[in-house]
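If you are new to this repository, start here. Below is one unmodified record pulled from the training split, so you can see the exact layout before writing a loader.
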Amino acid sequence: MAKAPVSLSGKVVAITGGARGIGKATATELIRAGATVAIGDLDAALADATATELGPSVHAYELDVTDRDSVRAFLDSVERDLGPLDVMINNAGIMPLGSFLEETDASAERQIDINVHGVIFGMKEALPRMLDRRRGHIVNIASLAGKAGFPHAATYCATKHAVVGLSEAVRQETRGTGIEISCVMPALVNTELGSGVNAGRAVKKLEPDEVAREIVDALGSPRFDVFVPRSTGAINKVVSVLPRSGREAISRWLKADRILVDRDATQRRAYEDRAAHSEPHQIAEREQDTAQV
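And here is the target side for that same chain:
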C-alpha cells in the first residue's frame, strides 16, 4: 500500500545558502505548501532582503556552513524562534570552473569546505535533534556531477560525489529511525552558479523552480534519489551498465565533456569573483565598500 503524502503545513524547514538560486526558489515553494522556512546564508544582508521579499513565513539568519559552531547556532536559533526542526536542506555550494592543474589550492579547499564539510556539519547538527523525536527529513543538494566527471570541474565533481556517497551511507545508518534522507541531483540550473554555461544535447538548462518543485515533491512523497529532470535518472541507469569506453563515447556525442569547458568567461566573471571571495571577512568588506559608495 502506498504511503499517504506527507503534509508540509506547519513544518519547520531550514535551508542553507537560502538567499538566492535554488535555495530561494525552494523557500518559495515551501511557503506555498504551508511550511515555515528559515534561510541561513553567509550574506546576511541578502538573506534579510530575501526574507522580506518572500514574506512573514520566511526568517533569515547569518550562517557560515564551514564552521560547525555557526551551523549549531543557526539551528539553535531556528528551533528557539520557530519550533522543532522538521526538515534540513543542505543547499549551500559553489562551483568555480577551470582546468584542474590551474586551480588554486585555496579554491579547492574552499569548495571542499562549503560543498562537503557544509553538508557534513549540517547533517551532524540536524540529525540528533531529529533522532530524539524519531522524525525528520534531511535533503542534500548534490548534482549530476556527483554521478560523473566533467572536465574543468574536477574538484566540484569530487565534492558532489562525496555528497552522494555521504547521503547513501547515512541513509543506511539511520534506517528504521523515522528519518528520511533525500539526495537531489539536478542537471545544469539557470542560476548565477550556472551562468555562462550551456546545457548539452540531452538535457535543457533547468530553472530553479523546477528543482524546487522536485525537492518539495520528495518531502511530500519521500524518496532517496531525486534526479532533476527525472529523465536523467533513467539515462544514468542505462549508461551505468555500459563499459567505460561506451559511457565516454556517449558523453562525447552528447557534448557533455565540453559543457563546462566551452563556457562564456565574460558571463561567468561576476560569479567566479564572488566564489573566489566568499570568506566571511571578504563578504563583510564588500558590504562595507558598497555602503560607502
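Two things worth knowing about this chain: The longest strand covers residues 179-186. The chain has one domain: 12-287.
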